[in-house]
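Posting this for the archive.
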Amino acid sequence: MKKALFILLAVAFAYSCSDEVRTVPKEQNPLFSMSRAVSLDRLDTKINLQKLGIINPTKVIKKDSILIVLDREGLNKISIYKQDGTLLGNYLPTGLGGNQGLYILTMHLDEKGILSAYDFGNNRMVEFDMNQLGQAGFGPTFTPVPTDKKHLCAAKWGSTIVATGMFDQRYALLENGQENFFLPYPNYRNADNSQKSILFASNIIKIKPDGTKFVCANMQSGIIDLCSLIPCNTITRITEQNLYSPKATVKSTRRKPVAYSTDNLFGFVDIEVSDEYIFALYSGRSYNKYKEKIGYGERIVVFDWEGNHVHTYLLGNPFTSISFCKEENAIYGLTNHPNSVLIKYALD
């Protein structure tokens, strides 16, 4: 396993014990405040994925009567089903190169019907034009990213790619074959940029449907960043919501430069976006208390594209991922406990 890959997996899904003891954040912020909390209880539909033979998926997007399934641990990373369980196709069999896929954490379906995901094992963006589903030649197309630096998270809109990774600055912007780097990392004690790139490696990036802005949410903390892509050759920060920093020990060692506390609160599990809002699925769980259930989000924090907190949806069913359907004005949430179920909640 490549060293950079091992670092990302360790940062995103495992914890090393730290002796440092710090208090749980007590400041009133959108992640902890109940002042704008709304119970999301307008349950509309439940789809029992287990009965369809879909077991422990990572993320599921419903488009019309189609289910698009990401399975991070599966033999095929992306599969497409009819809603009755009929398999339409398996794509990206596990492996390096060719039409294969290796490490994909999330995926996104835009309003034009383009499904995109970043494969950081193969260093490339993967795209499917869902408008061509059922036509001859339907399948993935690939856009490579430069390999001189390790890109760990990326999102694509048109020809623009925004990424985070092992960089000296926070973001990489790839446009017209050129790559440039922008903005400092969040402050974290005396850590240098190399240490910060590891500390803040676990992110989810989503680009606004019109391509003018993007949001980057950290999985290991309460840090969510909103940035502008206007003009298209630069990144400027609109606001950085540093709601709380990760609990970690940072050391100048190559073997284990970052050790997260088992009491560290897991941050943003998944992000979805619309023209008006950012839907941030938030965990707030610690490994010490929840173990393997740390990656479940119990609330969806809604921001506008200026970073203002709109309201927070409280979930009766904690989700591992979410998707937003503009046509239905609904949130679909995925749970794999005890069985794999996709749950639809209609929004007001």
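The CA atoms of residues 70 and 78 lie 5 Å apart. The chain has a mean pLDDT of 90.
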